[in-house]
Design brief:
heterodimer, A: 6-stranded mixed sheet, 2 helices, 14 strands, B: 2 domains, flat
């Protein structure tokens, strides 16, 4: 009976210690985990690929957004029945020393609006310099998913964006369209 | 570059060690005063409080300071493990039990601690007191120790087989 009592009390002691140990260990691990998550916040850093002005930027009414992360044109115009070209409406600059993969894209049909029926053709081409070698494919504005395809812009390089606009013969001066293109930058290297 | 490990990891290790000694001294309660397991549980709770304080003042305390007070807690935990060993061996004259405890607990724990400390120092270099050791070397040492441990376990389970082999060679 005594042995049973001793065993009983011993096991009770061990069980109690085991349970409290598990609670302490779990709570400590949870606090550590919380601290770990807290210590790795999401920080902000300067974009390596930015929009910059180029030779025809003034004519196209180019404005670079905050930190060069978007581009806005407010005085582009095209001719009826003839193609007007802005050879270097703006530049896309990779300020990193390594190559970065980019893709300029007309993402979806809703990305252009206005008198789209009056536009004969509108294309955007990425070139290594004004009138230079084409990089990737031609973007057909109005064709959802049309893009330059993913291409690597070498380190410390600026490419130019060429716009070709042709209105149809009946287009009037009051006709206008708004277009939005998306620049996708993937695999930007670390510091 | 921020470290993948926080210095509080040493506190976490220290807490686990205190909890382990608490359970160990409870299992060997014939050789220890009744209060000892509970004291170690208290020490683990102190460590938990330590973590909470660290969490509350993380931005206030620098990484250097957090590293040092975490290391101190870990060293105290390790000192207690060694003290338990010495108590069993010197005070209670239980040399065989002390040896088992040393081989099965104190030595692996010390090895593990050095692995984490040197690993952390290699990743962050918060102190010039600890030399930087390549992570590859640390991993190789850990694998080597596991291999030696495996041989040790095998020899312990089948001592006659090893003895016969050695006699045959002679």
């Amino acid at each position: 009976m005594d042995v049973r009592k001793i065993l009983h009390s011993r096991w009770a002691k061990i069980s109690t210690l085991l349970i409290t140990s598990m609670i302490i260990a779990t709570a400590s691990a949870a606090v550590y985990n919380y601290m770990y998550m807290e210590s790795f916040g999401i920080s902000a850093k300067a974009a390596k690929v930015t929009f910059v002005s180029a030779a025809d930027s003034v004519a196209a009414g180019f404005t670079a957004g905050t930190n060069g992360t978007y581009a806005y044109f407010n005085s582009m115009a095209g001719w009826p029945n003839a193609t007007r070209t802005y050879q270097a409406a703006c530049g896309i600059q990779n300020s990193h020393t390594a190559s970065v993969t980019i893709e300029l894209k007309f993402d979806q049909a809703g990305d252009w609006s206005g008198d789209t029926g009056q536009v004969d053709s509108m294309t955007v081409v990425l070139r290594d310099s004004a009138g230079g070698t084409q990089q990737g494919s031609t973007i057909n504005v109005g064709t959802a998913g049309s893009s330059t395809t993913a291409i690597g812009i070498p380190g410390s390089t600026t490419w130019v964006v060429e716009w070709n606009i042709k209105w149809n013969a009946n287009a009037q001066g009051t006709h206008q369209v708004s277009v939005m293109l998306t620049l996708i930058v993937t695999g930007e290297p670390g510091e | 570059m921020p470290s993948l490990l926080l210095p509080e990891m040493f506190v976490l290790l220290g807490i686990d060690v205190f909890l382990a000694i608490s359970l160990l001294t409870c299992l060997l309660d014939k050789h220890f005063p009744t209060a000892v397991p509970y004291l170690y549980q208290m020490a683990a709770i102190v460590g938990f409080g330590h973590l909470l304080v660290s969490k509350g003042f993380m931005s206030l305390f620098g990484e250097h300071m957090r590293f040092w007070y975490s290391i101190i807690y870990l060293v105290v935990a390790l000192a207690n493990v060694i003290a338990v060993n010495l108590y069993l061996g010197v005070s209670r004259k239980l040399w065989s039990l002390a040896k088992i405890l040393f081989g099965g607990f104190t030595f692996p724990i010390s090895l593990m601690f050095s692995f984490f400390i040197f690993g952390y120092v290699t990743l962050t270099t918060p102190s010039s007191l600890f030399p930087e050791v390549p992570m590859g070397l640390l991993c190789a040492v850990l694998v080597g120790c596991t291999f030696v441990l495996g041989i040790g376990v095998f020899v312990s389970i089948r001592p006659e087989m090893v003895r016969n082999r050695l006699e045959k060679r002679r």
